[in-house]
Amino acid sequence: MGYFVGIDLHGDNNYIGILDEEDRKVFKRRNRNDINEIKRVLEPYKKEIKGIVVESTFNWYWIVDGLMEAGYQVHLANTSAMQQYEGLKYIDDTRDSFWLAKMLRLKILPEGYIYPKETRSVRDLLRKRMMLVQQRTAHILSMQTMVNRNKGVPISGDTIKKLSNEEVMGMFSDVHLTMSAQCDHEVIEVLNKQIYKIEKAVLKEVKLKKPYKKLLKVPGIGEILAMTIMLETGC
């Protein structure tokens, strides 16, 4: 007898559903998001479990890592690709756990990539950098718009990045416009420091693999962006 496990994962709890090879529900239970509790729940079935499916939600790292370390065969469900199989859902069950288990049993589960734990944090750090760069861009655009709207002249993003505090103070005669420009400028400076700190840490930690060095020949792609592409592709 083999068992197939589906885990419907939420922010602070999860729901485990176990099916056998005849599609019979043999176990269901809501649990706390605690890996030790989950392992205790699964222990009586462990020898016969053929696979466990976890939804690719925002918080899957801890449970996938914990189950894999416990020796289970874990699959990460690609939720965006599962809509075509919604007709297989159990009518009398509002939870997705048995649906996940059933797709695994039928060998039609659309799977997501389980990114290696060893380099996942570096990839996520580069994602943090990307978020900070986007925030910096928003403040640069804010200053560009302010200057153009009030002075009728354009100003480049590179120029804004290089402005000193004194230059920002002298941009406008209006005190409120000056304060607005100062807010943008000070945030940009803070973001610059954090972005540089991340770049320095990543460059020290990770080396660009040979195939990805070809990206450096593409205009606009530097070492950090090439490294981001490398890590996002799971290499």
TrEMBL record:
<protein>
    <submittedName>
        <fullName>Putative transposase</fullName>
    </submittedName>
</protein>
<dbReference type="GO" id="GO:0003677">
    <property type="term" value="F:DNA binding"/>
</dbReference>
<dbReference type="GO" id="GO:0004803">
    <property type="term" value="F:transposase activity"/>
</dbReference>
<dbReference type="InterPro" id="IPR047650">
    <property type="entry name" value="Transpos_IS110"/>
</dbReference>
<feature type="domain" description="Transposase IS110-like N-terminal">
    <location>
        <begin position="5"/>
        <end position="147"/>
    </location>
</feature>
<dbReference type="InterPro" id="IPR002525">
    <property type="entry name" value="Transp_IS110-like_N"/>
</dbReference>
<dbReference type="GO" id="GO:0006313">
    <property type="term" value="P:DNA transposition"/>
</dbReference>
<dbReference type="Pfam" id="PF01548">
    <property type="entry name" value="DEDD_Tnp_IS110"/>
</dbReference>
